[in-house]
Protein backbone atom coordinates (compact mmCIF):
# COMPACT_ATOMS: atom_id res chain seq x y z
CA UNK A 1 0.00 0.00 0.00
CA UNK A 2 1.39 3.36 -0.97
CA UNK A 3 1.01 5.57 2.06
CA UNK A 4 1.74 8.66 0.00
CA UNK A 5 -1.47 8.27 -1.98
CA UNK A 6 -3.74 7.19 0.87
CA UNK A 7 -6.28 9.91 1.72
CA UNK A 8 -5.82 11.42 5.16
CA UNK A 9 -8.42 11.58 7.91
CA UNK A 10 -9.61 15.09 8.78
CA UNK A 11 -11.83 16.03 11.72
CA UNK A 12 -15.05 15.37 9.81
CA UNK A 13 -13.91 11.96 8.59
CA UNK A 14 -12.70 11.09 12.08
CA UNK A 15 -16.05 11.95 13.63
CA UNK A 16 -17.82 9.94 10.95
CA UNK A 17 -15.56 6.97 11.70
CA UNK A 18 -16.46 7.24 15.38
CA UNK A 19 -20.16 7.40 14.50
CA UNK A 20 -19.85 4.34 12.25
CA UNK A 21 -18.02 2.41 14.97
CA UNK A 22 -20.73 3.41 17.45
CA UNK A 23 -23.67 2.24 15.32
CA UNK A 24 -21.93 -0.97 14.29
CA UNK A 25 -20.76 -1.60 17.84
CA UNK A 26 -24.29 -0.91 18.98
CA UNK A 27 -25.60 -3.72 16.77
CA UNK A 28 -24.17 -6.30 19.20
CA UNK A 29 -25.87 -4.51 22.10
CA UNK A 30 -29.21 -4.22 20.26
CA UNK A 31 -29.07 -7.91 19.34
CA UNK A 32 -28.41 -8.91 22.95
CA UNK A 33 -31.62 -7.18 24.04
CA UNK A 34 -33.67 -8.49 21.09
CA UNK A 35 -32.54 -12.07 21.82
CA UNK A 36 -34.53 -11.98 25.05
CA UNK A 37 -37.75 -12.39 23.05
CA UNK A 38 -36.82 -13.05 19.40
CA UNK A 39 -34.85 -15.99 17.92
CA UNK A 40 -31.64 -15.22 15.96
CA UNK A 41 -32.95 -15.89 12.43
CA UNK A 42 -36.01 -13.73 13.03
CA UNK A 43 -33.78 -10.90 14.30
CA UNK A 44 -31.87 -11.10 11.01
CA UNK A 45 -35.15 -10.82 9.08
CA UNK A 46 -36.24 -7.81 11.14
CA UNK A 47 -32.89 -6.11 10.58
CA UNK A 48 -32.96 -6.35 6.79
CA UNK A 49 -36.74 -6.15 6.25
CA UNK A 50 -37.19 -2.81 8.05
CA UNK A 51 -34.02 -1.44 6.45
CA UNK A 52 -35.51 -1.79 2.94
CA UNK A 53 -38.04 1.10 3.10
CA UNK A 54 -35.48 3.42 4.73
CA UNK A 55 -32.84 2.73 2.05
CA UNK A 56 -35.48 2.91 -0.69
CA UNK A 57 -36.31 6.45 0.45
CA UNK A 58 -32.61 7.39 0.45
CA UNK A 59 -32.08 5.98 -3.06
CA UNK A 60 -35.22 7.76 -4.33
CA UNK A 61 -34.13 11.04 -2.69
CA UNK A 62 -30.69 10.75 -4.33
CA UNK A 63 -32.33 10.16 -7.71
CA UNK A 64 -30.66 6.78 -8.22
CA UNK A 65 -32.43 4.58 -10.76
CA UNK A 66 -33.17 0.96 -9.91
CA UNK A 67 -31.34 -1.49 -12.18
CA UNK A 68 -33.42 -3.46 -14.65
CA UNK A 69 -31.03 -6.28 -15.60
CA UNK A 70 -32.00 -9.63 -13.98
CA UNK A 71 -28.29 -10.50 -13.67
CA UNK A 72 -27.75 -7.49 -11.40
CA UNK A 73 -30.57 -8.55 -9.09
CA UNK A 74 -29.18 -12.08 -9.00
CA UNK A 75 -25.85 -10.59 -7.92
CA UNK A 76 -27.71 -8.66 -5.20
CA UNK A 77 -29.30 -11.91 -4.03
CA UNK A 78 -25.88 -13.52 -3.61
CA UNK A 79 -24.52 -10.36 -1.99
CA UNK A 80 -27.45 -10.29 0.42
CA UNK A 81 -26.66 -13.84 1.44
CA UNK A 82 -22.94 -13.30 1.92
CA UNK A 83 -23.03 -9.85 3.52
CA UNK A 84 -26.31 -9.97 5.48
CA UNK A 85 -28.25 -13.21 5.81
CA UNK A 86 -25.37 -15.57 6.65
CA UNK A 87 -23.18 -13.33 8.86
CA UNK A 88 -26.06 -11.67 10.74
CA UNK A 89 -27.61 -15.06 11.52
CA UNK A 90 -24.30 -16.55 12.66
CA UNK A 91 -23.48 -13.56 14.85
CA UNK A 92 -26.91 -13.41 16.46
CA UNK A 93 -26.85 -17.15 17.15
CA UNK A 94 -23.32 -16.83 18.53
CA UNK A 95 -24.53 -14.17 20.93
CA UNK A 96 -26.90 -16.68 22.50
CA UNK A 97 -23.78 -18.35 23.93
CA UNK A 98 -21.15 -15.61 24.32
CA UNK A 99 -21.02 -11.97 25.40
CA UNK A 100 -21.72 -9.20 22.90
CA UNK A 101 -18.27 -7.68 23.52
CA UNK A 102 -16.50 -10.95 22.79
CA UNK A 103 -18.57 -11.37 19.62
CA UNK A 104 -17.44 -7.93 18.43
CA UNK A 105 -13.79 -8.79 19.12
CA UNK A 106 -13.98 -11.99 17.08
CA UNK A 107 -15.81 -10.09 14.34
CA UNK A 108 -12.73 -7.85 14.20
CA UNK A 109 -10.93 -10.59 12.27
CA UNK A 110 -12.98 -9.61 9.20
CA UNK A 111 -10.44 -7.07 7.93
CA UNK A 112 -7.41 -9.32 8.54
CA UNK A 113 -8.86 -12.43 6.94
CA UNK A 114 -10.57 -10.35 4.28
CA UNK A 115 -7.15 -9.24 3.04
CA UNK A 116 -6.11 -12.90 2.73
CA UNK A 117 -9.30 -13.92 0.92
CA UNK A 118 -8.91 -11.01 -1.50
CA UNK A 119 -5.28 -11.98 -2.03
CA UNK A 120 -6.31 -15.50 -2.96
CA UNK A 121 -9.26 -14.60 -5.20
CA UNK A 122 -8.42 -11.20 -6.74
CA UNK A 123 -5.56 -10.73 -9.18
CA UNK A 124 -5.12 -7.02 -8.39
CA UNK A 125 -4.80 -7.64 -4.63
CA UNK A 126 -1.96 -10.18 -4.36
CA UNK A 127 -1.34 -12.17 -1.19
CA UNK A 128 1.76 -10.47 0.21
CA UNK A 129 3.95 -11.67 3.12
CA UNK A 130 2.57 -8.78 5.18
CA UNK A 131 -1.00 -10.05 4.76
CA UNK A 132 0.07 -13.57 5.70
CA UNK A 133 1.83 -12.35 8.86
CA UNK A 134 -1.21 -10.24 9.75
CA UNK A 135 -3.48 -13.27 9.37
CA UNK A 136 -1.14 -15.33 11.57
CA UNK A 137 -1.43 -12.76 14.35
CA UNK A 138 -5.21 -12.84 13.90
CA UNK A 139 -5.29 -16.64 14.18
CA UNK A 140 -3.12 -16.53 17.30
CA UNK A 141 -5.45 -13.93 18.80
CA UNK A 142 -8.44 -16.16 18.13
CA UNK A 143 -6.55 -19.10 19.63
CA UNK A 144 -5.87 -17.14 22.80
CA UNK A 145 -9.55 -16.21 23.10
CA UNK A 146 -10.82 -19.75 22.53
CA UNK A 147 -8.09 -21.48 24.58
CA UNK A 148 -6.47 -24.88 24.18
CA UNK A 149 -9.57 -26.57 25.60
CA UNK A 150 -11.32 -25.89 22.29
CA UNK A 151 -9.16 -28.61 20.70
CA UNK A 152 -10.18 -31.32 23.16
CA UNK A 153 -13.52 -30.39 24.78
CA UNK A 154 -16.87 -29.57 23.20
CA UNK A 155 -18.28 -26.32 24.52
CA UNK A 156 -21.22 -24.38 23.06
CA UNK A 157 -19.18 -21.21 23.63
CA UNK A 158 -16.49 -22.54 21.31
CA UNK A 159 -19.08 -23.36 18.67
CA UNK A 160 -20.48 -19.84 19.03
CA UNK A 161 -17.02 -18.36 18.60
CA UNK A 162 -16.55 -20.42 15.44
CA UNK A 163 -19.90 -19.09 14.21
CA UNK A 164 -18.64 -15.51 14.59
CA UNK A 165 -15.49 -16.42 12.66
CA UNK A 166 -17.71 -17.96 9.97
CA UNK A 167 -19.52 -14.63 9.77
CA UNK A 168 -16.19 -12.84 9.34
CA UNK A 169 -15.30 -15.20 6.49
CA UNK A 170 -18.69 -14.55 4.87
CA UNK A 171 -18.08 -10.79 5.05
CA UNK A 172 -14.69 -11.30 3.39
CA UNK A 173 -16.23 -13.33 0.56
CA UNK A 174 -18.93 -10.67 0.16
CA UNK A 175 -16.27 -8.01 -0.34
CA UNK A 176 -14.70 -10.03 -3.17
CA UNK A 177 -18.11 -10.73 -4.73
CA UNK A 178 -19.02 -7.04 -4.67
CA UNK A 179 -15.76 -6.03 -6.30
CA UNK A 180 -16.17 -8.59 -9.06
CA UNK A 181 -19.86 -8.14 -9.85
CA UNK A 182 -21.19 -4.85 -8.46
CA UNK A 183 -18.33 -2.36 -8.90
CA UNK A 184 -20.23 -0.49 -11.62
CA UNK A 185 -23.37 0.11 -9.55
CA UNK A 186 -23.99 3.14 -7.28
CA UNK A 187 -22.89 2.26 -3.73
CA UNK A 188 -26.22 3.16 -2.10
CA UNK A 189 -28.04 1.05 -4.71
CA UNK A 190 -25.76 -1.83 -3.75
CA UNK A 191 -26.79 -1.35 -0.12
CA UNK A 192 -30.48 -1.37 -1.05
CA UNK A 193 -30.06 -4.32 -3.40
CA UNK A 194 -28.31 -6.47 -0.82
CA UNK A 195 -30.88 -5.86 1.94
CA UNK A 196 -33.66 -6.61 -0.53
CA UNK A 197 -31.84 -9.78 -1.56
CA UNK A 198 -31.28 -10.88 2.03
CA UNK A 199 -34.94 -10.16 2.86
CA UNK A 200 -36.04 -12.43 0.02
CA UNK A 201 -33.71 -15.15 1.34
CA UNK A 202 -34.66 -14.82 5.00
CA UNK A 203 -38.48 -14.77 4.70
CA UNK A 204 -38.90 -18.47 3.73
CA UNK A 205 -36.09 -19.56 6.08
CA UNK A 206 -37.61 -17.79 9.08
CA UNK A 207 -41.14 -19.04 8.35
CA UNK A 208 -39.80 -22.60 8.02
CA UNK A 209 -37.50 -22.59 11.09
CA UNK A 210 -39.06 -20.09 13.52
CA UNK A 211 -42.61 -19.80 12.21
CA UNK A 212 -44.54 -16.58 11.73
CA UNK A 213 -42.74 -13.74 13.57
CA UNK A 214 -44.47 -12.54 16.74
CA UNK A 215 -45.34 -8.87 17.01
CA UNK A 216 -46.44 -8.76 20.66
CA UNK A 217 -42.95 -7.76 21.76
CA UNK A 218 -41.91 -5.44 24.55
CA UNK A 219 -41.11 -1.82 23.75
CA UNK A 220 -37.45 -2.36 24.59
CA UNK A 221 -37.14 -5.21 22.08
CA UNK A 222 -38.93 -3.20 19.38
CA UNK A 223 -36.56 -0.29 20.06
CA UNK A 224 -33.60 -2.67 19.66
CA UNK A 225 -34.94 -4.05 16.38
CA UNK A 226 -35.46 -0.48 15.16
CA UNK A 227 -31.90 0.35 16.20
CA UNK A 228 -30.56 -2.65 14.28
CA UNK A 229 -32.44 -1.67 11.10
CA UNK A 230 -32.33 2.13 11.12
CA UNK A 231 -29.02 2.81 12.89
CA UNK A 232 -26.79 -0.27 12.55
CA UNK A 233 -27.84 -0.95 8.95
CA UNK A 234 -29.23 2.11 7.11
CA UNK A 235 -27.24 4.85 8.86
CA UNK A 236 -24.19 2.60 8.93
CA UNK A 237 -24.26 2.09 5.15
CA UNK A 238 -24.72 5.83 4.53
CA UNK A 239 -21.74 6.62 6.79
CA UNK A 240 -19.68 3.79 5.30
CA UNK A 241 -19.94 5.01 1.73
CA UNK A 242 -19.48 8.66 2.73
CA UNK A 243 -16.27 7.79 4.59
CA UNK A 244 -15.13 5.66 1.65
CA UNK A 245 -15.31 8.74 -0.61
CA UNK A 246 -13.73 11.10 1.94
CA UNK A 247 -10.99 8.96 3.47
CA UNK A 248 -10.55 5.89 1.29
CA UNK A 249 -10.86 2.16 2.00
CA UNK A 250 -7.53 1.97 3.85
CA UNK A 251 -8.64 4.43 6.52
CA UNK A 252 -12.06 2.79 6.63
CA UNK A 253 -10.34 -0.37 7.90
CA UNK A 254 -9.66 1.49 11.16
CA UNK A 255 -13.32 1.15 12.12
CA UNK A 256 -12.65 -2.57 12.72
CA UNK A 257 -10.56 -1.67 15.76
CA UNK A 258 -13.03 0.94 16.98
CA UNK A 259 -16.13 -1.29 17.07
CA UNK A 260 -15.20 -3.55 20.05
CA UNK A 261 -14.66 -0.69 22.56
CA UNK A 262 -18.18 0.60 21.86
CA UNK A 263 -19.70 -2.88 22.06
CA UNK A 264 -17.76 -3.79 25.20
CA UNK A 265 -18.63 -0.47 26.84
CA UNK A 266 -22.36 -0.92 26.20
CA UNK A 267 -22.21 -4.51 27.43
CA UNK A 268 -20.45 -3.55 30.65
CA UNK A 269 -22.63 -0.50 31.32
CA UNK A 270 -26.08 -1.95 30.55
CA UNK A 271 -25.80 -5.75 30.39
CA UNK A 272 -23.42 -6.47 33.26
CA UNK A 273 -20.94 -8.26 30.97
CA UNK A 274 -17.33 -8.84 31.97
CA UNK A 275 -14.56 -10.14 29.71
CA UNK A 276 -11.64 -12.21 30.91
CA UNK A 277 -7.98 -11.28 30.31
CA UNK A 278 -7.73 -13.76 27.42
CA UNK A 279 -10.31 -11.70 25.49
CA UNK A 280 -8.24 -8.53 25.88
CA UNK A 281 -4.99 -10.28 24.91
CA UNK A 282 -6.72 -11.81 21.90
CA UNK A 283 -8.09 -8.41 20.89
CA UNK A 284 -4.58 -6.95 21.11
CA UNK A 285 -3.20 -9.68 18.83
CA UNK A 286 -6.04 -9.25 16.32
CA UNK A 287 -5.43 -5.48 16.36
CA UNK A 288 -1.72 -6.10 15.77
CA UNK A 289 -2.63 -8.36 12.85
CA UNK A 290 -4.71 -5.57 11.34
CA UNK A 291 -1.86 -3.10 11.83
CA UNK A 292 0.54 -5.47 10.06
CA UNK A 293 -1.95 -6.08 7.24
CA UNK A 294 -2.49 -2.33 6.80
CA UNK A 295 1.25 -1.61 6.96
CA UNK A 296 1.07 2.17 7.39
CA UNK A 297 1.87 2.25 11.10
CA UNK A 298 5.07 0.27 10.66
CA UNK A 299 5.91 2.26 7.54
CA UNK A 300 5.73 5.49 9.54
CA UNK A 301 7.80 4.02 12.35
CA UNK A 302 10.44 2.98 9.81
CA UNK A 303 10.44 6.47 8.27
CA UNK A 304 10.83 8.13 11.68
CA UNK A 305 13.75 5.84 12.56
CA UNK A 306 15.40 6.59 9.22
CA UNK A 307 14.91 10.32 9.73
Please work out how many helical segments DSSP would assign: 13
**Count of DSSP strands:** 0
Radius of gyration from CA coordinates: 19 Å
What percent of the residues sit in helical stretches (DSSP H or I)?
A: over 70%
H and E string: HHHHHHHHHHHHH
Proportion in β-strands: under 5%
Low-confidence stretches: none
> Structural class of the secondary elements?
mainly alpha
What is the molecular shape? globular
Q: Please report the distance between the alpha carbons of the first and last residues.
A: 21 Å
Mean pLDDT: 88
- Major pleated sheet: none
Number of domains: 1
Give a brief description:
By secondary structure, the chain is mainly alpha-helical. It has helices at residues 11-34, 40-49, 51-61, 70-94, 100-107, 109-121, 129-146, 156-181, 187-209, 219-252, 255-270, 277-294, 296-306.
Features:
307 residues, mainly alpha, 13 helices
Q: Can you walk through the features of this model?
A:
The structure is a single chain. By secondary structure, this protein is mostly helical. It has one domain. It contains 13 helices and no strands. The protein is globular, with a radius of gyration of 19 Å. It starts with 10 loop residues before the first helix and ends with a helix. The mean pLDDT is 88.
Amino acid sequence: MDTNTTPTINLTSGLMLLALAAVWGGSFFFAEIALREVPPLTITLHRVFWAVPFLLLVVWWKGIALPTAPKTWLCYLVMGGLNNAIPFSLIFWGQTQIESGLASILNGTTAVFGAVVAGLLLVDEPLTPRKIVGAIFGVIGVGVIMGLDALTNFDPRNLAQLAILGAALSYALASVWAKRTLAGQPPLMNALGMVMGSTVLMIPIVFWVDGVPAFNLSSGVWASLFGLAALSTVLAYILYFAILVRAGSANLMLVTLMIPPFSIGLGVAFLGERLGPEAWVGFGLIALGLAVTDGRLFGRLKKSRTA
